[in-house]
Amino acid sequence: MPRTDSSRRVPARHNRDQPDAESQRRQGSAQGIRDWTIHVNEHYRQTRDTKLVTGVLYAVATRRSRPVRLPCFNDPNNDPRATGLVDDVRVSPWFPNGTVYHCVHNVPGTSLTLANDYTIVLSRRPQCAPPNEAVGTCLGVNLRGNLIVLRHHHRYHMSVTNVHSSERRLIDYVVPDCASYFSSANLVLIVLPSSTPAPPATTENRIYVP
Known about the structure:
This protein is an alpha+beta fold. The protein has one domain.
């Protein structure tokens, strides 16, 4: 009878199309963010059909939020001064497992309306992402996956505009309420089960939460 080795382990098979936690941490590090900035500046020039907007990134492997430049694809027939729509901002490289979009209209815990709405973008499958150090360190919330904040135009609510440095403290106040919700058990109601293969990170792979 052939001898069997019960301690032998068969390596797990990984989906090569789905980045592992370590590669997501490399991208979400300070060096990864610098590399992204260089890439964006080299490949996405300001043109009639591509704009660059500034959002705020809470990355998985940094200990504070950082401004991040993001390409926004704009209809060339639009007014040249138009910045593009929130939905057209390319955030998919930071969310390989899809996205959840949540728009914030009011100051958390009050009925006060924000001068500008903010859209908070999170991972659709946080169980496939590493813990977010920036959110944990700065905001005291346990969250997995990157988090990006986009700023709406105050008059044209579907349009995106640059986040100003003076707003960073306000954003730090707004984000925890949303992040706490998505780090709670409520999240299982809106994400795919862990056994379900992740679809490509496209527009169709977005979930909008009121």
